[in-house]
Specification:
This protein is of the alpha+beta class and 264 residues long. It folds into 2 domains: 126 residues, MutM-like, N-terminal (N-terminal domain of MutM-like DNA repair proteins); 112 residues, Helicase, Ruva Protein, domain 3. 28% of the residues lie in helices and 22% in strands. The chain has 7 helices and 10 strands. Strands 1-6-7-5 form a 4-stranded antiparallel beta sheet. The chain has a 4-stranded antiparallel beta sheet with strand order 2-3-4-8, with helices on both faces. α4 crosses α7. The structure holds zinc ion. The site of zinc ion has 7 residues, from loops. The site of zinc ion (ZN) has 7 residues, from loops.
Length: 264
């Protein structure tokens, strides 16, 4: 599932390909992709407009149509945005097709249809309505401490909870915990752990962005390169543990991510 770095790459891609071209028409090819908007209205609102700006918040994307209307996108599990030069064939699971002047198109392709397309007055309105928390890369350390301190639940679940911090998914949450040496089963971190975790969330996301979200380019010291059954910890060689935590398959090192009692 695309997480913050992958979605940021899509934002950059849209910025490079799809802005400032007049939209001739839009065709909803599968209404299951739509969220709280009828296909006719979506097509009507897009026709004649241009995307003038693209923003990302957490795993969400917003394309500006005019001052009080934005297209809101979520890639879900398998969503992809593909810019098609004139004459290029559209991908096999196209759910929404935007036709630009000069014959170019933008396709939202999504085989499993966990993605989402909707309209909103503004990204701010959308984020409030959906109760989406601050973006993981926009958040400062004090903000993070404020959000996380006093929470009693599993730290892994808190990191995946988009209403607390937006942008982390299973892979990068595990990675930040791994680097910070914190067991994903920990409940109630102390301040030292929270600070370390905040540092590593930033570090892991920025490192991923520096590779253009190419997972194969991440350092060998990262968990990501070793997270498969039988994988070992690049730090101490321990056999990595694979466990369902908060409903998601998590990987961690039983050696340097030991569960320890809360220290104050
Ligand atoms: Zn280890």
């Amino acid at each position: 599932m695309p997480e913050l770095p992958e979605v940021e790459m899509v934002r950059r891609y849209l910025q490079a390909t799809s802005l400032f071209q007049t939209i001739r028409a839009a065709e909803v090819k599968d209404e299951r992709i739509l969220s709280k908007v009828a296909a006719e209205r979506l097509a009507e609102e897009l026709a004649g407009q241009q995307f003038s700006c693209v923003r990302r918040h957490g795993k969400r994307l917003f394309l500006k149509l005019h001052d009080s209307l934005w297209l809101a996108l979520h890639l879900g599990l398998t969503g992809r945005l593909i810019y098609l030069e004139r004459g290029a064939e559209e991908p096999g699971h196209t759910r929404l097709l935007v036709f630009f002047e000069k014959g170019h198109k933008l396709a939202f392709d999504d085989s499993r249809i966990f993605g989402e397309v909707g309209l909103t007055e503004s990204p701010e309105t959308f984020l409030l309505e959906r109760k989406i928390g601050p973006d993981a890369l926009q958040l400062d350390r004090e903000g993070f401490l404020e959000i996380m301190s006093g929470r009693k639940g599993l730290i892994k679940s808190a990191l995946l909870n988009q209403s607390l911090v937006a942008g982390l998914g299973n892979l990068y949450a595990d990675e930040a915990l791994f680097q910070a040496g914190i067991c994903p089963n920990t409940r109630g971190l102390d301040e030292v752990q929270h600070r370390a975790l905040f540092f590593w969330i930033q570090e892991v996301l920025r490192t991923a962005l520096a590779t253009n979200a190419n997972l194969e380019m991440l350092p060998n010291s990262y968990l990501l390169a070793h997270r498969y059954p039988g994988g070992t910890c690049p730090r101490d060689g321990a056999l990595l543990r694979r466990e369902k935590i908060g409903g998601r398959t998590s990987y961690y090192c039983p050696e340097h991510q030991k569960l320890r009692p809360r220290q104050i």
